[in-house]
Amino acid sequence: MKSRLRKKTVRAIFLLHRWLGITLGSMMCIWCLSGFVMLWKAWPQPDEMRAGLAHERVQLDTAGVLPPLEGSYRSFRIVMAGAIPVLQTTRDTGAAGSFDLRTGKALSLSPDDLENEAARYAGPGRVSVRFEGLRDHDQWILNTRGHQSGFYRYALDDPQKSLVYLSPVDGDVVQATTEATRFWSWLGAIPHWLYPSLLKRHQRLWVNTLIILSGAGIILTSLGLWIGWRRLGAGRQISPYRGTHFLHHVTGLIFGLMLLSWITTGFLSMNPSGLFAPGPAPGWVTRLNRAVTSTELEALLETLRAHPESRFRDIRLSAWGDKAFIAVIDDEGKRLTLDPALSPLPLTVEPLKQALGRDGIAATVAVLEHDDSYYFSTRHLKRPFPVFRVTGDDGVRLYLDARCGAQLLVAEAGAKGSRWFIYGPHDLNFFGWLRTPLARLLIVLPLLLGVSAICLTGLCLGIMRLRFRITTTRTKRRKQDRSGTSG
Questions:
Q1: Closest CA to 47 of 237, 178, 199, 212
Q2: Which of 187, 233, 239, 449 is the most buried (most CB within 10 A)?
Q3: Closest by Cα among 320, 307, 295, 315 to 405
Q4: What is the DSSP letter of 169?
Q5: Segments in 122-202 forming alpha helices (H)
Q6: Start-to-end CA span in the chain (Å)
C-alpha cells in the first residue's frame, strides 16, 4: 500500500513539474534572456548635469512676493521655470509646495512655459521641440516619483530622438530617454520586470502577477532539483536521459541552485505580505539638521538681489547642523556650497557632530570617498561621492551628500535585510569586486548562461511534449473515426 502511494506521489511530482514547465517555460526564458541585456544596459535616467542646466539662470528682478510661510521647513529652493521665478518649500513632514515669486500664489505651469527647458536639456545648438501632452502612465515614467499627477512630455528633434519629461510643478527634468535606451529597455528591463505600461499602471495587479509567476517558478525549480538529484546515476551513468533531456538534466544539476536563488530573490523583491517592508526612519534622522526660517529666506533673497552678477541655476537654502547654508548649481553645472552671504562654505563633519551632541544623539560620523556595504554604485545607479555617513547606536546608517547636504540613503533594518537577503544574491553584488565589469564577464555571465540553458532546454522539452500529445490525440481520433465508419 505504501509502495503504491509512494509511486503515485512520485508520478504526481513528475507530472506537476512537466506541466508547470510547459506553462511557465516561456516566462522563465524571458527572465533569463532579458537578464543578459540588463547586465550592461540600465533603465533610462536623465543626465544629472544636463538636467540642472536645463533651468534658466535665476533672475529675481521680478520676484517680490513671498507666500505665507507658517510652520517648520526643512528647505527652500529657488529656481526658474521658463521665465517664472519659483519658490519650492519642503516642510519637516516632507510635504512640498511650489509658488510663483512674482505673485506669491501657488504655481501652475503651462507646456509653453517649459518648452525652452526641454530644448536646453539637449545641450548647445538649436533643437526643435514638440509637446506631446500631459502623461501620467507613460511607459518611461511608471517608476518616477509623482507620475500620478502627470508630467509634460516633449519630443526633441535631436540625433538621439530624445523624449524629455518635465514636472509641471517646478519645471524639473524628471525623466529622459533616447531611441537607444528605449530599444534596450524593451529587450531588457521591461520584459524582466514585466513593465509594459498596460500592466504596470495597475500597481496591485502588477505586484500580484509577479508574485504568482515567481512563486510558481520557485515550485517548478524546486521540483526540478528534486527530480534531478533523484535521477542522478540512474542506469549506471550520470543521467539516464539523452539529447535535449540530458542537457536539461545536467545543467539543472550544475546551475539549478543558482536558478532557485534568482527566482526566490525575485519573488522576495516584490515584498509578499510585507516581509521586507522598509521601516520608518528613526527620529534622530529628522532632528539632525535644524529647520530654516522665512526670515532667513527673506535675507537670502535680499542678498541675491544685491548680487545680480551671481550666476546660479538652482539655489537651495537648508541647514547643516545648526548653520544655515545654500547649495547652488552654477552656469557650468558645478555644485557649490555657500553661506547666506554667498561666501564659500565647505560642508564638514564638525557641524554634524555638534548637532548630534546638542540633541544627545549617540552616533558616529565618517567621510566616505568610496563604496561601503550599503551605499555603492551599480550599473543601474551611479552614487555621488564624497558622502557623510552617520551611524546611530541603533545601527541605522544615514548617508548625506557632501556637495549639498541632501539625504541620499537611510539604511535601517528593513533596507539592510533586503540588501543581504534579496538584492545581494539577486544582483551578486556582495563585494566591490563583484560589481566590476570583469566580474560580470567572468562570473555572472557564465552563471546566467548555465541558468538560461536550463530554461531553454526545459522550454524545448515542453514544446516537444505538447507536440507529442497533440499528435497522439489526433491519431487516436482518426482511428476512432475509421472504426466508426467501418462499423
A1: 178
A2: 239
A3: 320
A4: T
A5: 179-187, 189-193, 197-200
A6: 43
